[in-house]
Amino acid sequence: MPRYDKGDVVLVHFPWIDAKGDSQAKSRPGVVLSVEADQVRLIIQITSKNRSNKLPGKWVLAKSHLGIQMGIRLDSFINYTEQAQLQIRDIKRKIGYCSIIEQIEDEIENLS
What we know:
It is a single chain. By secondary structure, the chain is α+β, with helices and mostly antiparallel strands. It has a single domain (about 10-100), classed as SH3 type barrels, CATH 2.30.30. About 15% of the residues lie in helices and about 50% in strands. The radius of gyration is 13 Å and the shape is globular. The mean pLDDT is about 90.
C-alpha cells in the first residue's frame, strides 16, 4: 500500500459542502501537508479557481517547472484555507510532487 508523504501531490475524493448543506466529495488534486497517523493524511486542496481572489494560497502555472513536477494539467490554485484529514483509502493515486511544500507550510503557519 502506498505511503503518501508530505509534499506528494495526490488525486483524492476531496470533501465539500453544497448549497443545501449536504456533504459531497469531488475528485481533485491535493497536496499532502502532513502525515497525521498511519492511515490519515492532512491534504490541502488544489483547484483551478480562486473565485474571490482573496483566499490565501499560491497559483501554479501548469506549464511551469513546478506545475510539471506537480503533475497538474491546468493552471491551479493551492487553497491554504481548504484542508481535510483524509484516510489513505480516499486517495486514488500520486500524480506528482510539490517541491515548495516547506514554503507553503511556512505561509500557512504565518496565517495564524
